[in-house]
Structures are given as structure tokens and as C-alpha cells.
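1st attempt posting a full record on here, be nice pls
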Amino acid sequence: MTTPQHRTRPMPRARRFDLRATAMFFGLLATALVTGGLAVRALAGAAERRPVWAVVLCCLAAAVVLAHARRRRRLSASALARGAGEALEQATATALDALEEPVPAPGPPAAGADAYAHDLDALDPEEFEEAIAALCARDGCSQVEVVGGAGDLGADVVALSPDGRRLVFQCKRYGHDNKVGSQDLQRFGGTCFTVHEADVALVVTTGDFTEPAEDYAARCGIVCVARDTLLAWNDGRTPAPWTACAGDPEA
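the predicted structure (as C-alpha cells):
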């Protein structure tokens, strides 16, 4: 009688250390880490520049993770599509809300004469009258009105000064070398006080005045505002021209 022989399984042979495969593995691992770090850095920079798109990408990533989790749970394809669609819809709504945020309205201009100064040489005669009216309003006048036009009898702008005096302006938009003559002053002097009832009558010009015109204005109590004085008033470097005769109630 023979004794049955039992076969024994051969012992597994130990794997030999492969230096080449190990070096390749660590090389690929290092490459993956560097690539991942650069990708994260790029995404972080993009998120700082475009926070809206960062929100969209995060939502899309969340949708992908959710889809993967649901797939692992063997959910139906329709449920997976519905979940991804809801996540994408939410991301789109978030991005649109961010893009539609109202832009703050610019604040009022800074206080001071510079905010109201005009380029007087670039204006036509009608715009020049509007600019003089704006300067009056800037310096505290009330009831400012542009009345220049046909039949104005010499008055272009009227206003009430801050101390209640009636101001009547004649505006002469001239070139640098042109001068307002005495005849212009005489025509204005014949109506500014008697017809327009001015407390202070002023002639403003972007040019200058002849000597006879200045002499006539001095005799009649008309304030002459030549180019240099007008530019200084426009820039806020000098007080308003009517303040020079504030102490003369008959001016």
C-alpha cells in the first residue's frame, strides 16, 4: 500500500529591486507634483483676476465630483444628468449675479473753483454768457439768468449777489488782441442803471479795454473785467469782481 504524496506549492520568489523602474516612478511622481503645483498657482492667479470665473469653475468641479460620487453609487443616468444640470445652472446664476452688480456712481466733483473753471477761449459768444452765469452761481449768486439776445439792451446775464445786490453783466467774447471801446461802454452805460436797474454793472471780456473805455467806466461806476482779471476769477485765484465795490452802495 502506497502512501499518497501531497504536492506542496512552491514559495513565491521575492521580487528583485529594479532601480530603473523605481527611478522612473519617482521621476513621474515629481513631474506630477510640479505640474499640479503650477496648475494650482495658475488657477490661484486667475481666481484673483477673475473671481466670477473662479466661482464658475468651483461649481463645475463640484458638479463633476458630485457626478462621480453618484456614479459610484450606481445612480441612474437621468438622475446624474439632472444633478449636474442643477449645479451648472446654479453656477451660471451666481456668475450672472456677480456680473450684474451695479457699478457705484461717480461722486460729485471736488469742491473748489477748479471743478467749475471753463476753457473760456474755446467758447462761442452764447457759451461764454453761459459760463459767466455759471461763475456767478458758483460764487453764491441767486436768480442767475442769461438774458442776452436780440433786444437785450446790453444786458447778457443778470443775478443777485450773495448780499442781495442786482448784478447786470455785458459779455464780450473777443480775441486776445481785440479791445472793448468807449462806444460799447456808452451804449451799456445808457441802459444798465436806468433800464436794468443794476446795483453793480459789469462788462467782462476775453480781450481788453481801451483807455477811453476805462475812463468812461470809471466815471459811470461800471466795473471792467479784462482778460487777466477774468481768467483769475475763472480759476478761483481772485474774488468775484462785484466784491470790489461792495462798500459803495451807489455803484
